[in-house]
């Protein structure tokens, strides 16, 4: 008995573009995640290894331990640099809130429109106690 093989239909141009677009996004997301995790391990792994060594033998100088602690703290300062470099959505979100990151073509929202948007209030008809009851 032979099992018939399902023939795969060739992908159209649109499907190919869709696949390429999503594979590029996935590759970029993987690259960003790899860089973030790599930076985390480079910054914090020496600290954790030294911390265990200090607990076992007590042979780690205090100055060296402080340097490794600050290396880990520096990792936290690298994240705000790495995210804007690799994530377009992060750049757009920051551009809305920080004037230094806003593009010149984007209109600057007025304080009134921001407060109206944040308070979920728009123009309202005047209400009186008589209308409420």
UniProtKB/TrEMBL annotation:
InterPro entries: GPCR_Rhodpsn, GPCR_Rhodpsn_7TM
GO cellular component terms, A-Z: plasma membrane
One Gene Ontology MF term: G protein-coupled serotonin receptor activity
Region (Disordered): 113-133
Positions of the G-protein coupled receptors family 1 profile domain: 1-83
GO biological process, one term: positive regulation of MAPK cascade
Location(s), subcellular: Cell membrane
Transmembrane segments: 26-47, 67-86
Pfam families associated with the record: 7tm_1
Top-level taxon: Eukaryota
Keywords carried by this UniProt record: Cell membrane, Disulfide bond, G-protein coupled receptor, Membrane, Receptor, Transducer, Transmembrane, Transmembrane helix
Membrane topology category: Multi-pass membrane protein
Keyword Cell membrane: yes
Main location: membrane
Gene3D superfamilies named in the record: Rhodopsin 7-helix transmembrane proteins
Name of the protein in its database record: 5HT6R protein
Organism listed in the record: Cettia cetti
Organism classification: Eukaryota, Metazoa, Chordata, Craniata, Vertebrata
């Amino acid at each position: 008995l032979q099992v018939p093989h399902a023939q795969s239909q060739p992908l159209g141009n649109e499907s190919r573009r869709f696949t390429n677009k999503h594979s590029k996004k996935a590759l970029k997301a993987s690259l960003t995640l790899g860089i973030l995790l790599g930076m985390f391990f480079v910054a914090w792994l020496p600290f954790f290894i030294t911390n265990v060594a200090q607990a076992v033998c007590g042979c780690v100088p205090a100055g060296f331990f402080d340097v490794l602690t600050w290396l880990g703290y520096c990792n936290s300062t690298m994240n705000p640099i790495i995210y804007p470099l690799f994530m377009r959505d992060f750049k757009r979100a920051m551009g809305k809130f920080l004037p230094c990151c806003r593009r010149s073509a984007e209109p600057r929202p007025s304080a009134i429109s921001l407060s109206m948007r944040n308070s979920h209030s728009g123009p309202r008809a005047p209400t009186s106690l008589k209308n409420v009851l």
